[in-house]
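Could you join me in thinking about how sequence relates to backbone shape in a protein? We need material for that, and I hope you will provide a protein of your own picking. Label the sequence line and the structure token line clearly, so we can match residues to local backbone shapes. Would you write everything just below, so we can both look at the same thing?
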Amino acid sequence: MIKPHFWKRRLVSSRMTINQHVPWPIKFAFIAAVLGVGGAIAMWTYDMGRSFAFGPKFSPEQMTALQDKVASLTEERDKLLATATTIESQQNIEKATQKQLTDQINALSAENNRIKEDLAFFESLMPSANRPQGLTLQKTKIEMAGANQLRYRTLVMQGGKSAREFSGEMHISLTLVQAGKPVMMEFPDPKSGDAGKLKLSFKQYQRVEGQISLPEGATVKSVQMTVLEKGELRAKQSVSL
């Protein structure tokens, strides 16, 4: 009586600790192992059916051995699938952690730059013969903050030993290009009334910063900031983008 031939493989234990990024060749090996186990199960099932139909009958002991082998291979296949899922989950966690660290680094870099700008500003407040007299706009920064969002930042400073209390407002004029045509935009909107104005009230300096929502599809070409006191122009600065 011809005994059926069985393939034997030593499978990788399902208990694994993934600490590093797993290369694609290793992931492919796991997938190939899973497919191989599935193929082995199919082959034994097929051989068992052929033996019943055309060959010698199996003894109860052989039937039990076959059933145990199929159950064992099925269990190992499930372990391999679980291991592959664990590897993929670990990689997703590593990607999320890396993104979080990158965001923290970018936030710290932005804060460091802000501190440097503030330090330079306070140094400029120290008495100096080269310090500009009268009302000026300094440390102006204009940049895009996202889709259709423009961020502005400036310092309105008043030089001179006998600087008086200043009270006024700031206007921002934007030159845009929309649908291939030049467009002018005023900020704050003149229709917003007194409550919407960028009011200024200081003796030495005042920081003015915020964001402006742009029309859809508009591109900023230049920005002009003007400081008014009782309707009279006191200072202005233009920035091209």
Summary: The chain has two domains: 24-102, 131-240. The domain at 131-240 is CATH 2.70.50.60 (Coagulation Factor XIII; Chain A, domain 1). The longest strand covers residues 134-146. The beta strands are 134-146, 149-159, 166-178, 181-187, 198-202, 205-213, 219-229, 232-240.
